[in-house]
Amino acid sequence: MNQLAMTESSSAAHSEDAERDNVVPEPSEQFVLTPYVEQVTQRALTYLSVGYPVHFAGPAGTGKTTLAFHVASKLGRPVTLIHGDDEFESSDLVGRDSGYRRSKLVDNYIHSVLKTEEDINTLWVENRLTTACKRGFTLIYDEFTRSRPETNNVLLSILEEKILNLPKLGRHGEGYLEVHPGFRAIFTSNPEEYVGTHKTQDALMDRLVTLRIDHYDRESEVGITRAKSGIGRSEAEVIVDLVRELREMGASRHRPTIRACIAIARVLVHLGAHARSDDSVFQAVCRDVLHTDTAKVTRQDQLVVTLKLDEVMEKVCGSKARHSRHPNGSHIQRKENEHA
Ligand SMILES: Nc1ncnc2c1ncn2[C@@H]1O[C@H](COP(=O)(O)OP(=O)(O)OP(=O)(O)O)[C@@H](O)[C@H]1O
Ligand SMILES: [Mg+2]
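^ thats the input. predicted complex w/ adenosine-5'-triphosphate below
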C-alpha cells in the first residue's frame, strides 16, 4: 500500500504569533526608581509571590502601566500584554477554532483507482491568555475594565482554581488546561474613567489584590520629568509645581498629569526656551499643553487657564507673569525662528 499523507494548515502561523508576542521587559534608561515606586513594587511582588493577582487602580497618568511592567520585569518571566477592549470576546483572549487541517489519503494500491479520502478537522488556535497560562508567563492586562465583564469571565477559574476552561477544545482535548505554576497576573484600571469602561463583576474584583495608585509625590514627578526630557532640575521643579498647583485647583484633582510636565519640558528643551515666568515661549507652551484641562471655562472673556497661569506663575516663579492674551502659537514660532 502506497500512502501519501498531506497536511495543510491555514493557521499554524497564529500560534507562532502568540508566542512571539511575549517579551521579557527591561527597564529603560529613562525609568525612575523612586522610593515610592520601590515601595509599591515590593508590595505587589509580595502578593504575586504568594500567588495573588495584583491590580493597580488609579487615575490617568499615575504610572500604572509603567509600574506593571516594572513589577513584571522583577518576576523575570516573559510578559504577555493584553489591552482591554470593548470589542473583545473571550475567544480573543483564549483562542478559537480557526482554519482547518486537511489530511489527504491517496490510495493507489490499484493504480487504476485513485481513492482520495479527505479528513477535515478544525484547528484550535490559541490566543495570548492561553499561551501565558500554558507557559507560565506574566500577564499584564492593561485597562482590563474596557473589556466587557462576560469576556473577562474566563479569568475567574484561571485565578482561583488555576484552571483555564476551554469548552471548545473538547473535540481536541480535555476541555480544560491546568495553569502553569509560574503564571502571574497584573491588572490595571482607571476607576475614575466612565466612558468606554465597564463595571467589573464582584467575583473578579474579589480575586484581585487592588493597590490604589495616586499621583507621584513631587520629588518623583521632578525626577521623571527630568529623565523624560533632559531638562535641568530647577526648571523641572517650576513645571512640576505649576502642574501640581493646577491639579489641586481642578475639579477632578486628577489633571493635568505627569504627561503634561513631560510634554512642556520636552518642548522647552527642543526650542531652547526656559521655564521662567518672563519667557513667552514657556507661557505659550503651558497654555497649549494645559489647555485641554480647562479649555472651555472662561471668565470675563478670558480663558481660565490663562488667569490661573497668572496666579500660579506668580506663586511658583515669584513674579507676575506677563503674556499674551491671545494664544495662537506665535511665540513658539518666533522663538523657533530665532534659534534657526
Ligand atoms: N517610574 C517612572 N519612570 C519614568 N517615567 C515614568 C515612570 N512612571 C511613569 N512614567 C511616565 O509617566 C507617564 C504616565 O505613566 P503611565 O502611562 O504608566 O501611567 P498610567 O497610569 O498607565 O496612565 P493611563 O491611565 O493614562 O494609562 C508616561 O509617560 C510614563 O512613561
Ligand atoms: Mg496605562
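Residues 64-65, 142, 188 surround magnesium ion (ligand 2) (CB under 6 Å).
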